[in-house]
Structure formats: structure tokens, C-alpha cells
Write a structure and sequence with these properties.
394 residues, 9-stranded mixed beta sheet, 3-stranded antiparallel beta sheet, elongated
Amino acid sequence: MKIKSILFNLTLLAILTPLAHARWKTPEEADTVRIQKNLNVTVKKNGSYSFTNETLTEIKNEKGRAELGTVALSYNQRAGSLTVLSAETRLSDKIYKVNPRFIEDKPVATDVHGFDQINQIKISYPKADVGARIYLKTFTEQKEVPIPGHFDTFLTFGNGLVQKHSKIVIASELPLEFVFNDPTGSLQHNYEIKGGRHTLTVCQLKPIYHEFANEETNSFTPLRASTWVSVSTTKSYAELTKNIVTKYDHITSQPLPPDYEAIRKAAQDITPFTEAANTVTSLLADKLRYMGDWRPIRGGYIPRPLTEIASTHFGDCKDMAAVTTAILRKLGYNASVAWVYRSTANHASNPLVNASSFNHAIVKVENEGRSYWLDPTNPSSFAQGIPNDIFARQ
């Protein structure tokens, strides 16, 4: 009877919880409606790209007014540029241009735990009242890319707002791989190759809207239930990383600086492997303070030389993974740096090869027929298991 009572109470709790009443919002409940979106992307052979983005969005209520009254855009100032071509409010058949004084472009303060070089453009619209339509046209140029010869993008439709019409054109000097998820049959596409140029055109045929009601704290829309297009110029991760692997191997094969050589000596006679690995990562934590480097281009994918890491006494995940790999290799273990998506929340995997599938560097070790996954940035050395925030990740 007691077990039945517990099961009954758990069932009742599930019924009464607000999450049990989650449903899709209707278009009438939306805060904003995207009347039109035009996106034109040009991709060069080296992977650099530029695009013009044009949007017209209507404010439907006070929440939408707060969201669209002031718009913030960000870009990497050193690696590219973002220009506001036109910004205006359209209300009651009148057009109110945004005064240049209310378009501010300035660097964002660096996070205390990391480096970046991000600028933010803030646009404050006049007459941003309920019923107003907010127009914005921008041009973005990305001159420096994280992985040369590669381009990818993931385009969503109707997530968080009603999307009425859109047209996407991607013209590329590189061949395009693409995958569609269109549960409501709202998209039409065409792909053609002409004069060495690959062009993918996507047109939206009817309105799209994906947003949950009664789940204000959960904005995650399941990948299978939303409308999206994934595009990539690379067919495999081996192809994506072939040049990067060489750079990593060059760094991890460098002679160990004195501090790291001392760690190797301290661990050389320790068995089993888990104890030796925990010794390496715990001693490394005494010598190397974590300092994130989240710049998307320089510092984003390749670690620094071992001597530079040792001289600064700080490093980000890829620096710490490279040092750990170098020490373990000198100890005779088959170690490599691995990329993973680190998060305790749900993370939907993109079906195509893309650089944003990974946000963290760890270490993989093959030893006596078993794979070990080490995270040198973790507060605790844990070679005997896998930390929860990287467990079962790609």
C-alpha cells in the first residue's frame, strides 16, 4: 500500500506540475512577427564569407516592444566587420529613420575569465510602439575564419517568433552539403552549379512558429520538431581537422619545459594508469591556472606553444589539454587532444560537419584496450571515470 501511495503521489505531482501543461503557442500569442527576412551569403574558396541580412519585424505586445525597441548585434572586430546599412521604424504609414547618434559601435569589456575581441552595435529605434514594424539591413564580412577552406551555417525558422516570409541565398565557390528538417512542409529549395559557383536558394512557403507556452524557463525546442537548414562545405571531420591535427602534433611533440618535465618525473613510476593520470592533472593544476580564450578566430582552435603556456602560468582548455597530452606521451601513453561539447544541458547535434559542434578540448588516452577521457580543467582529477558535463557527448 505504501508503494502504491508513493506512485500515486508522483503521478499526481507530474499532472499538477506546470511543465505537464506545455503546448505550442499559437501565432496570436507571439510577441513579434517576422514579416520578411532576406539573407544573401557569399562564400569564397578559402572559407571567408560575407552576407547581407534584411529583416522587417512587427511588434505585437509590450514584451515584443522591449525586445525590439533596442537591438544589439555583435561581431569580431579584428577578424571582420559589421555595417548597419539601414535602420528605421515604420508606423502608421510613416517612416522614422534611426538617428546615427543612436547607433553605437564599441568594444565589449573582456570577461574576467577569458579573452575576446568582440564589438557590439546597439541600435535604439524611435517610435517602437506596439504595432510598429522594425526594419534593419546589415552587411557582415568575415575575413578571417577559424578553419581555412571551411564554411558552415545553421539556419532556423520560426523559433521564438512567427516567421511569415523568408528567402535565403547562399552562393559559394565551395561545394555545399545541406540537410533540411521541415516538419510542416514550409520550405522549398533549389540547388544549382553554374560557372564553378554552387548556389542554394531556400524560400519559405507559409508561416512558421515554434515556441512553447507555460515553459518560460525552457526555451529549448527539440531539433526534430523545429524547422531548420544545415549547410556545410566539408563532408567529414577528418577532412575538417586534417590541417589542425598537424598543428596540434607539432605542439604536443615539443620538448617539455622544466615545470612540466618535473611533473613527468613525478608520475613516471606510478601505476595503474588512472593514478599516473591523476598525478599529472593534479600537479598541472598547481602550475597552470585556467584562463579561457573564447576568441572565435585566433586562440579559438589552436593551443599556444608549450614554452609560452609555461611562462604565463595560465591556459585555456586546449592549452591544458595539449600540455597534458605532451606529458602523457612522454610517459609512453597513447594520448591525443579531443574536442567535445561540454554542457550539463541538452545539446542537439548538428547532422553535418560544423565547427560549432564542439566548445571544449579534453584528452583521450588509449591504454590496455580501454579509452579514458581526461578533462584537465576539471576541479578534480578523475581519470577513473567521466565527468557528467562531457559524458556521452560526441
